[in-house]
Specification:
It contains ten helices and six strands. The chain is an alpha+beta fold.
Length: about 220
């Protein structure tokens, strides 16, 4: 039976607390995550990704100035370095002190130079535009994850998967033909092969397939 968000979240956070050796971060986790972070996970991340794997809340890092920084959520699949920052309107935009604002900008600048990929999301966007936030998350994950390419894939098939992952929407064969600089007839052969391998799925068309997208299991 599929677990609910609350069940997954409680197990995930409890495991984080048990496994954490850093007393500073462990205390932060025991206090619970912010309302904005939990809302993001509940309304955006979990519905579109389906799990909380490779997410590390209140993650402690040192920036290039050797200063400790805490990230709202670090996303680190396979050693990649992604950071999701939930921007609350009251604390980040309206009532923020000048020095705090400068420090936040410096934090992002120094960590970006240390190869962290940032995804700042406003709490108001989570509340009012969750579908847009979901698209941002898919693109963010797509940049940090590498599709496990089979050695049996041709260069054109592999690039088709990369193209579909970057696009994150249904596409027509003519779009792919323009990208790969191949004829539409050749493109249809490539797409049929990927459909047979269950890497690409058909999203419209019966007699003649018209649009395709990346299989969710391939993301």
């Amino acid at each position: 039976m599929k677990l609910s968000f609350d069940e997954v979240y409680e197990n995930w956070l409890a495991t984080m607390i048990i496994e954490e050796n850093n007393p500073r971060r462990r205390e932060l986790l025991k206090k619970g995550l912010s309302h904005g972070t939990v809302t993001f996970l509940r309304k955006v991340w979990f519905p579109v990704i389906g799990n909380l794997n490779d997410l590390y809340p209140e993650y402690e890092v040192r920036d290039l100035d050797n200063k400790y920084r805490y990230l709202d959520i670090a996303y680190m699949p396979g050693g990649a370095k992604g950071c999701i920052e939930i921007q609350d309107y009251s604390s980040h935009a309206r009532d923020i002190e000048t020095n705090r604002f400068k420090d936040l900008c410096m934090k992002q600048a120094l960590l970006t130079l240390d190869d962290w990929l940032f995804l700042p999301i406003a709490y108001l966007s989570i509340r009012d535009d969750p579908s847009v936030c979901k698209k941002l998350v898919l693109s963010f994950v797509g940049k940090l994850l590498s599709i496990k390419m089979s050695v049996e894939l041709t260069w054109a098939e592999a690039e088709t998967l990369r193209f579909a992952r970057r696009l994150m929407r249904p596409f027509e064969p003519r779009e792919l033909a323009s990208h790969l600089l191949l004829s539409e007839n050749r493109i249809r052969v490539i797409l049929r092969s990927l459909v047979a391998k269950n890497l690409i799925i058909v999203t419209s068309g019966k007699q003649r397939y018209r649009t395709y997208r990346l299989n969710d299991d391939t993301i």
